[in-house]
Design goal:
By secondary structure, the chain is mainly alpha-helical. 70% of the residues lie in helices and 0% in strands. Its main location: membrane.
C-alpha cells in the first residue's frame, strides 16, 4: 500500500531511511575504527578535521556515533520483533478464546502495564544483569501489554464476522482461523503499533544505557554515548548534545512515520478481507 502521509511524515520517512542507511553501511564507510584510541587530541571541539569532535580518549566521535545509531536501532528492532510476535499472538488468542484464557492474558498485560516503564526496565535488568539481552527483554515486556490490548481490540471486530463463523462451522481449526482470517485483518494495526513500540524501545534502551545498565563498554549506543559525555558536559557539551539530538531526531522520525502509516493502513470503512 502506498505511503499517504502528509509532507511532515514523508520528510520523516526520508530522515529515518537516511539514519537506517548510515546504520547499515556504517562498517564500510571510511570513518575510522570506533574503538581506536589516541588518534587525536582529547576533547577536541568539532572542526574541519574532527567533524563531531573527540572524546576523553582522543577517539573521533563520528564513527562511535555511527556505531551508536546502528546499535540503538538493532537492539530496539530485535525487541520490537519479539514484541510483535508475542503481542499479536496473545492479542488474537484473547479475542478468540473468551473466558479464563482471555482474562489471564488481559490481567497479565494489565499488571505489566501498571508499572512505570523505566522502573520496570531497571527491575528486569537487575534480574537478568546489565547488557544487551537484558535491555531487549525489558523492551519486549514493556511494549507487549499495549500491543496485546490494541491487537485484541482489533481482533474482536473480526472474530464475530460471518466469514469467521462460517469457517468455524465448516470445520476450520483455531490456528487456521487466526492465521488465515484474523491475522490479515489486524496486520495493519500491528504494524502501526510496532512503529510506536520502536520509538519506546529506543527510548528505554537509551535510558538503560545512560544509567549504565544497558549496553556495556566498549560497545556504544546513543544512550551510552550520552552517558559517557555527561561527565564532561561543562567543558565538552557536544559529547552530549550530538548523540542526544540524533536520538531525539530518530524517535521523532519514527513517531511521525507511524502517524503516516496509521493513515495509510487505516481499515475503517474498508471491507474486511476474507
Amino acid at each position: 500500500m502506498p505511503f499517504h502521509g502528509d509532507l511532515l511524515s514523508r520528510v520523516s520517512l526520508v530522515v529515518l531511511l537516511g539514519l537506517l542507511a548510515v546504520a547499515v553501511l556504517g562498517p564500510w564507510l571510511p570513518l575510522g575504527d570506533p574503538a581506536a584510541v589516541n588518534v587525536g587530541p582529547r576533547l577536541a571541539a568539532p572542526s574541519g578535521e574532527w567533524w563531531t569532535g573527540t572524546d576523553s580518549l582522543g577517539r573521533s566521535v563520528l564513527p562511535r556515533l555511527v556505531e551508536g545509531i546502528r546499535t540503538t536501532f538493532l537492539l530496539a528492532g530485535v525487541a520490537v520483533m519479539g514484541t510483535v510476535a508475542l503481542g499479536v499472538a496473545l492479542g488474537m488468542l484473547a479475542a478468540y478464546y473468551r473466558g479464563p484464557i482471555a482474562e489471564l492474558i488481559i490481567r497479565g498485560a494489565d499488571v505489566l502495564f501498571a508499572f512505570p516503564s523505566l522502573l520496570l526496565a531497571i527491575l528486569l535488568v537487575a534480574i537478568t544483569g546489565p547488557g544487551a539481552p537484558g535491555a531487549v527483554i525489558s523492551i519486549v515486556l514493556i511494549c507487549s501489554p499495549l500491543m496485546v490490548r490494541v491487537v485484541r481490540a482489533a481482533s474482536l471486530s473480526v472474530v464475530g464476522r460471518d466469514f469467521v463463523v462460517a469457517a468455524r462451522v465448516g470445520g476450520a481449526g483455531p490456528v487456521r482461523i487466526l492465521l488465515v482470517h484474523v491475522l490479515p485483518n489486524v496486520a495493519g494495526t500491528a504494524v502501526v503499533q510496532a512503529t510506536y513500540a520502536l520509538s519506546v524501545g529506543m527510548l528505554i534502551e537509551s535510558g538503560l544505557s545512560f544509567l549504565g545498565l544497558g549496553l556495556q563498554p566498549p560497545n556504544a549506543s546513543l544512550g551510552s554515548l550520552v552517558h559517557e559525555g555527561a561527565v564532561y558536559l561543562p567543558i565538552a557539551p557536544w559529547l552530549v548534545l550530538i548523540p542526544g539530538a540524533l536520538l531525539a531526531l530518530a524517535i521523532m522520525a519514527v513517531n511521525l512515520v507511524g502517524d503516516g502509516l496509521r493513515d495509510a493502513l487505516d481499515v475503517r470503512g474498508v471491507e474486511v478481507r476474507r
